[in-house]
Design a protein that fits this description.
By secondary structure, the chain is α/β, with parallel strands linked by helices. The protein is built from 17 helices and 15 strands.
Length: about 525
């Protein structure tokens, strides 16, 4: 059912409107992913990071071979208990373990919504090298749902603005933004990193923005990458580009109705990025003491990538859409080819805006030392022995350095308010986990929120949680064998309450048998 898909969601699906259409977002996320993979005609598939099997359930019945691996013992055990087709083989292992995986055995290797959980880009490179050896010549690696690195600041600035209290200044939001980016726990990568990828046998790199009618995190800030190994696909050079200027979708369809052999458009304003990019630009250029800038509207000629995909299909064409650079200029470029053709556009390489080391982030994995983590409690104990209770600070804020005035004195006005800083640590006795479920949830909260001093009775919203972080928490919890839905977290708010409510989630009927699907229903017409 749709609700069970939401319970087992392995991707971060975020809606700015709330949770009322979350089920539709999950279904669309799965449908568009499956549709794109099927367009390449996979028959022998190896999925790395299969989670609870959303993609497997749709692709395995029609495949000749389907091997699937996941680091989660719980996920693999649950899949093993379901009625799987005989061609499915399961492995419980990390992504970089290719022991027993024969060389040149598969035509498609899938890493969908998995790379963001890798510790570094170097680890991703290692996984891709192993995957390339397991592919037959002419095979492909599908990397789905990659987060754009250069867009992290715009993305986080918009989410912080949405929950900023009245009266928040630009300086306060910029401080929170810097803290949020510093504690980003997921790997993000710019498209140019893949264009510069040094991979044995790499014949062609194909980058496409995510499809989807619903505007959310994945359809705004994420993209897919298809790495063709060995024999490169048939490609076509497109040398003539037209500027979008003041065109609209109707005019685009009129141009396609003339049946050109190809059509290439550049300088297309991205309607989904317009507000966050515009707000972020205004934020960093504004006076720190000023109120937050007004959210700009998209230019009248702006369109979404999905509108370009849909227009192409309506006219019998295939659209290939990506950011013109790294996304920060807010522009798209698109190539339209006849739907019946079997060629792929030979894109020019994306010009990197930074050195390769700057094309990815370094996810925060809470490298704070134990001494640093215990410092607030140590200070509180020290002060409690010398001061009355009312004189002991309620909150401590960790800072790299003190802000100074031009005269070298501490700039008190620039100090963050303890209640507003995301590095604030409340000096109180922490309530520790009392069972295994609470311990697992605590570790997940610490990783996602970037805070080590968390009590099991802390309210997630008081810790700075929002809809994006809650979806990340539920994703990781499901991977760790603790079934949770975003709705539960929004309602119950604390680790204690969530752990106590877990029994209601566990008492679900067994997973149904995977039914054979109509393969043609999901194949994109070529």
């Amino acid at each position: 059912s749709g609700s069970s898909r939401l319970d087992q969601l392995d991707a971060v699906i975020t809606s700015w409107a709330g949770l009322e259409n979350a089920d539709a977002q999950v279904n669309e996320w799965i449908d568009t992913t499956v549709d794109r993979i099927l367009s390449y005609g996979p028959r022998r598939i190896f999925e790395i990071g299969c989670g609870t099997g959303q993609i497997l359930a749709r692709l395995a019945p029609e495949s000749e071979v389907y091997w699937a691996a996941d680091i989660s013992e719980v996920a693999i055990e649950a899949l093993g208990k379901s009625q799987l087709p005989p061609q499915v083989k399961l492995f419980q292992r990390p992504a970089d373990n290719f022991i027993g995986i024969p060389d040149a055995s598969f035509d498609t290797i899938i890493l969908n919504s998995v790379a963001q959980y890798f510790p570094t880009a170097g680890y991703l490179q290692q996984v891709l090298e192993g995957a390339s050896r397991a592919l037959r010549p002419g095979g492909r690696i599908f990397l789905g749902d990659i987060q754009g690195n250069a867009l992290l600041a715009a993305h986080h600035s918009e989410t912080l603005r949405e929950r900023a209290p009245a009266g928040t200044t630009c300086g306060q939001l910029l401080e929170k933004l810097a803290q949020r980016i510093a504690r980003e726990t997921e790997l993000s990568i710019d498209p140019a990193w893949f264009d510069q990828l040094d991979l044995p046998g790499l014949g062609h790199v194909e980058i496409q923005l995510r499809r989807g009618k619903i505007a959310n995190e994945t359809t705004t800030y994420h993209f897919d990458v298809i790495l063709h190994i060995g024999q490169a696909p048939s490609t076509v050079e497109v040398n003539s580009w037209q500027d979008w200027q003041n065109l609209n979708v109707e005019q685009l369809e009129a141009m396609l109705a003339e049946h050109p052999d190809s059509l290439a458009m550049k300088g297309i304003p991205d309607s989904r990025l317009a507000s966050s990019l515009g707000f972020h630009r205004s934020l960093i250029s504004a006076d720190r003491d000023s109120c937050l800038p007004v959210i700009p509207s998209a230019p009248p000629n702006a369109v979404s990538a999905e509108e370009l995909f849909a227009a192409a299909l309506h006219c019998g064409y295939r659209a290939h859409v990506r950011w013109q650079t790294d996304g920060t200029d807010g522009l798209l470029e698109a190539i339209f080819l006849p739907g019946q053709s079997h060629v792929t556009p030979a894109w020019k390489r994306i010009a990197p805006t930074r050195p390769k080391t700057g094309l990815t982030n370094v996810p925060s994995h809470d490298k704070s030392s134990e001494t640093s983590d215990d410092l607030p409690q140590t200070l509180r104990a020290h002060l409690a022995a010398r001061l009355p209770d009312y004189m002991i600070p309620a909150t401590f804020v960790k800072m790299e350095s003190m802000p100074l005035t031009p005269n070298g004195k501490v700039d008190r006005k620039a100090l963050p308010a303890p209640g507003e800083s995301e590095t604030a640590v409340i000096a109180r006795a922490l309530v520790v986990p009392r069972n295994e479920v609470e311990q697992k949830l605590l570790e997940i909260w610490q990783q996602v929120l970037g805070i080590t001093q968390i009590s099991v009775d802390d309210d997630i919203f008081e810790l700075g949680g929002d809809s994006i972080l809650i979806f990340q928490i539920t994703t990781r919890a499901n991977r760790a064998g603790v079934p949770l839905t975003p709705a539960q977290v929004f309602k119950l708010r604390t680790i204690t309450a969530l752990a106590a409510d877990r029994s209601s989630v566990e008492n679900k009927p067994a997973a149904p048998a995977i039914q054979r699907a109509n393969r043609d229903a999901y194949r994109r017409k070529l």
